[in-house]
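>> received
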Amino acid sequence: MNKKTVRVLCLVLVLSLACLMMTGCATTGGDAAGGASGASSIIMLVVLIAVFYFFMIRPENKRKKKLEQMRSELGVGDKITTIGGMVGKIVDISGDLITFETGEDRVRIQVTKWAISTNNIQKEESN
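>> returned
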């Protein structure tokens, strides 16, 4: 887990504990406070869902959209890295398949577009 995920989980834990404490303290006051505790727990639940959305779901969707855009903009001559760690230069794109060369011995490997993790954007200059 990275630091951001740990921070978000700690924040969620603190908010959950605060919600439980507010609900527990409000219900000891009697029947009049019972309605207020229901409203406050609903508000805390909404806040908790908003925190999850803005700190976990939304950034993940942005990352996926950016990765999909990068994969759709690949071209012949781009240097790429696959999700398996292989590095090479694209020599052919046909539909969903990408053929790239690795190393000096010019071994050609075919992968699907979803297997590309990064694009190093260094097209080879033609002489």
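>> The longest helix spans residues 31-72.
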